[in-house]
């Protein structure tokens, strides 16, 4: 081996110019860590990283002691032109999209945490990175600090991923956890999440599942080497989850979690596709995802050769997310110094996205019914007519004071099904709702995790 091979690579004299767009909780931590760890980062990259500016919407806001106010500018477009590496933490579609495209076109690699932009305009951004001969990195876009995209994209590049299943939204996990562990109702749990800074003043993106859907689209695209757009994701939020659903879950030894599920599917003719969905579901209390508490995230990846892998950690927050941003920054900067580039978009599989109706799942159906002879038989008949098999049935009389004190008593009937297509299960619920003997469909929730 030549002597040269034993020598440290050293640090080149010329610094790489870094532009930071956005100075919220993540941006502030990125700026701080770039300063605090400057020397170590330079050693890891092989060149110093020089923060040349921080683009903000307005000047004159107190940004705390970690931000050098001389770096602040409101002219993001001008800042991008001078950079070798651009960190986009503005969020939203515009101006983030244009700024990233300009950066890539000018030859700067881009690090972003912008899941909504990637899920809607990923192909356009990748093409711009390819044309510019630079990198587009976004580990921070999914599950915050958890190293997840790089393992999927690089460590598992030789394997075949079958399924990605996880909790990718910390806010909804916090809300559901408080509904379960502290008995809060949905509104109180959201208010508590807002007070702690997990949920935004307008919590729509989290509680309606938009944030999780963007992340699921990104995960599915990477896992299955195909393009999945945000609109391809079946999305249901947690706004209709009630204290009653959480209590019902407990009665069957389960908990309610907001899940993102990306699966490789095989049709009867052997053709492959993917299904991607985010929705609340009951999972067994013994499932590892059931013990993911507070605002934590956890993701299972099932691959043919590797088997099951689980990734767990903080999915949000300034400092944890800054860790993911800096990991990408060091990697892109190191590649730049070495004259190489990380992997680009991989979409050779061109898999169709299968409709939700074809997804195979299980349902927990909670009904109020008349308590008289033959009712259970009628319910069972309707379920069987739809080709759905019952796993368990639990019946409980509703006390007279709770029922309408009417001529006949009422009972609560809880049915958990075996696996069937979502279309068959949905049609079953509609048919049950139409029966005279069914006073109300109190709750319907998918059951995941086991059959
Ligand atoms: N709002 C997200 C969450 C974090 O609650 O997990 C950013 O994606």
UniProtKB/TrEMBL annotation:
Described function: Catalyzes the conversion of L-aspartate-beta-semialdehyde (L-Asa) to L-homoserine (L-Hse), the third step in the biosynthesis of threonine and methionine from aspartate.
Catalytic activity: L-homoserine + NADP(+) = L-aspartate 4-semialdehyde + NADPH + H(+); L-homoserine + NAD(+) = L-aspartate 4-semialdehyde + NADH + H(+)
Family the UniProt entry places it in: Belongs to the homoserine dehydrogenase family.
Domain ACT, residue spans: 364-446
Domain of life, per lineage: Bacteria
Broadest EC class assigned to this enzyme: oxidoreductase
EC number(s) stated in the UniProt entry for this protein: 1.1.1.3
Protein name: Homoserine dehydrogenase
Transmembrane segments: none
InterPro entries associated with the record: ACT-like_dom_sf, ACT_dom, Asp/hSer_DH_NAD-bd, HDH, HDH_cat, HDH_CS, NAD(P)-bd_dom_sf
Pathway: Amino-acid biosynthesis; L-methionine biosynthesis via de novo pathway; L-homoserine from L-aspartate: step 3/3; Amino-acid biosynthesis; L-threonine biosynthesis; L-threonine from L-aspartate: step 3/5
CDD domains (alphabetical): ACT_HSDH-Hom (cd04881)
Entry keywords, A to Z: Amino-acid biosynthesis, Methionine biosynthesis, NADP, Oxidoreductase, Sodium, Threonine biosynthesis
Organism: Kineosporia corallincola
Co-factor(s): a metal cation
PROSITE patterns: ACT, HOMOSER_DHGENASE
